[in-house]
Design a protein that fits this description.
Layout: H1 13-16, H2 21-31, H3 35-48, H4 53-65, H5 69-82, H6 87-99, H7 103-114, H8 121-132, H9 139-152, H10 157-169, H11 173-186, H12 191-203, H13 207-220, H14 225-237, H15 244-254, H16 259-272, H17 276-289, H18 295-306, H19 310-324, H20 334-350, H21 359-375, H22 380-393, H23 397-410, H24 415-427, H25 431-444, H26 449-462, H27 472-482, H28 489-508, H29 512-525, H30 530-540
Helix pairs in contact: 2-3, 3-4, 4-5, 5-6, 6-7, 6-8, 8-9, 8-10, 9-10, 10-11, 10-12, 11-12, 12-13, 12-14, 13-14, 14-15, 16-17, 16-18, 17-18, 18-19, 18-20, 19-20, 20-21, 21-22, 22-23, 22-24, 23-24, 24-25, 25-26, 26-27, 27-28, 28-29, 29-30
Length: 542
């Protein structure tokens, strides 16, 4: 759900299409994220003159910005059908190829577009933009083309801005700021530059500097929607809450009254600004009057979970899945399944009735996490660990053990995971398996006191009548390691248990002096321990 950037304007627009004022209007709508209005403008232009491929290209760009990638492809192809030499549409198709990670195919389109255009800095910059502003950015390639375009005509401010964007994407904020500062030197009234500079300050936590740049952008263009959007986010981050609402209202008025703009606002509130309460408020307003705007359920599920309303999050996610199932064009993402899984588990844990039917929530959790893995197999190990720990937290130890073993079959468990695997087995009374797990844990962390006490407890349960005193070496080791730290109540309890066991062992082996020593240690830890004091008296009379 990465934000997809669009190129604000085709750079050669100014000297090729000055007669098309409605085209300029459509581009302005596209810049301001008023996609419904832009789509309407470009559809009208394309119908009025289908042979002019620039209209088809912009129609494709609008579809792309709206995440309708099939519509974008159809528009680019239509532009090429109308004009086989449409370099813009070739570049649009190249961008889609990059989305599919087919870089050789993208290069074919770009090479075709640039054939005979080695000095056309506008087209070269367009190729750079296609490499950068997509779902699979390639900043190094983009930087190469932006630099070429800049070198051909360094007066054009946009080239410096795009070059800065490429540096940002390549994690080079210093180079990016230098490019933006150069852009300002060349044109001090271009608001986009100040917005880009503000983003760098925001990313480094210097919110006041970011706000200053955004306010400058708004002074230069009071109707530049993107500046208000970024300013709203900056106010949230800098906790200037009292300034948020007027900026939000202005942004909403600029993006238009169409429902698409409202949906994007909810996404922004949740995904970027993390203003979950406002996202819930606006989202419910939209879904109340426009129930087919199914993506709102995604942001409601997310926002409800983050505000601790797990049942509402769960229900919103169910509605999202139901809505998505109505059409193959409706996509679900990794985060959808992740929030469904997390909310289902939270509901199970918080259920105080212990209703057996609530176990289906855990089935939902497993199903959701498995769907997540289908979409992103790279997270398989992580998810197995999350499920295993969830079952441990829910005290369903057999299932916890099952999932830890599944993870171990993919990659050996780390020390923390071995500890929880051992606990799952211990509390499920599988003492032999638990002892093996704690033994492996102690191979990795030989001085981990908890590993030794659980080995002791496992062996005590395996030898309940103390026929062989299997637990002796582990209690001894625990005493050796843990005696230096008696500030924690749990450590004191385990030390008392250990000394008690060792005292009994020594009594049974006729070593009363060692037994008395252990009972004395118990009294040092707990002077009110009657068992220890009584046994010391008995041993003192022998």
């Amino acid at each position: 759900m990465k934000r997809v950037f669009i190129v604000a304007k085709i750079l050669f627009f100014s000297f090729l299409y000055l007669d098309a004022q409605t085209l300029e209007e459509g581009i302005r709508q596209l810049e301001n994220e008023n996609y419904a209005a832009a789509l309407n403008t470009f559809i009208k232009l394309n119908v009025s003159n289908p042979k002019n491929s620039i209209y088809a290209y912009y129609l494709g760009e609008t579809h792309y910005a709206m995440e309708n990638y099939k519509g974008a492809k159809d528009s680019y192809l239509a532009g090429l059908a109308a004009n086989s030499k449409s370099d813009e549409c070739k570049i649009g198709l190249g961008k889609l190829a990059i989305d599919e990670k087919n870089l050789p195919e993208a290069k074919k389109y770009f090479d075709s577009a640039l054939r005979g255009n080695s000095k056309n800095h506008a087209l070269i910059a367009m190729v750079g933009a296609a490499y950068l502003y997509n779902r699979n950015p390639q900043p190094k390639e983009a930087l190469e083309y932006f630099t070429q375009a800049r070198d051909l005509d360094p007066k054009i401010v946009k080239y410096w801005i795009y070059k800065g964007d490429a540096h940002v994407a390549n994690n080079e904020p210093g180079s990016a700021m230098t490019a933006y500062e150069t852009a300002v030197e060349k044109n001090r009234i271009e608001p986009e530059t100040y917005v880009k500079m503000a983003r760098i300050w925001n990313s480094s936590g210097k919110y006041d500097l970011a706000i200053e740049k955004l306010e400058t952008a708004i002074k230069l263009n009071p109707n530049y929607a993107q500046a208000y959007k970024d300013l709203y986010e900056s106010y949230i981050k800098s906790r200037k809450i009292d300034k948020v609402i007027p900026v939000l209202e202005k942004y909403t008025s600029l993006v238009g009254s169409d429902i698409g703009a409202k949906v994007r606002l909810v996404k922004f509130l949740c995904y970027q600004a993390k203003d979950y309460n406002k996202a819930i408020e606006v989202g419910n307003q939209i879904i109340g009057s426009n129930p087919e705007e199914y993506t709102i359920y995604r942001w409601l599920a997310w926002s409800y979970f983050e505000t601790g309303e797990f049942e509402k999050s769960y229900k919103s996610n169910q509605l999202l899945l139901q809505s998505a199932s109505k059409s193959t064009e409706r996509k679900l993402y990794v985060s959808d399944y992740e929030y469904l899984a997390k909310s289902a588990f939270k509901l199970f844990v918080l259920d105080t009735t212990k209703d057996p039917s609530k176990l289906n929530l855990l089935d939902t959790m497993e199903w959701s996490y498995n769907k997540l893995i289908e979409l992103d197999s790279s997270r398989e190990l992580e998810v197995y660990g999350v499920i295993a720990k969830a079952y441990y937290d829910a005290k369903i130890y057999k299932k916890g053990e099952e999932w830890y073993i599944k993870k171990n079959n993919l990659k050996p468990l780390n020390s923390s995971e071995l500890y929880y695997l051992g606990l799952c087995q211990f509390f499920d009374e599988a003492y032999s398996r638990a002892d093996s797990s704690f033994a492996k844990l102690l191979e990795l962390t030989p001085n981990y006191a908890q590993g030794w006490i659980y080995r002791a407890k496992c062996n005590a349960n395996l030898d309940p009548e103390n026929v062989n005193f299997l637990a002796k070496p582990y209690f001894e080791k625990y005493i050796e390691i843990a005696s230096a730290d008696t500030k924690q109540a749990s450590v004191v309890r385990n030390l008392i248990l250990s000394h008690r066991y060792m005292a009994y062992y020594n009594v049974q082996n006729n070593n009363n002096e060692l037994a008395k020593m252990h009972y004395s240690k118990i009294l040092e830890l707990d002077p009110t321990n009657l068992e220890a004091s009584d046994n010391l008296k008995l041993l003192g009379n022998k």
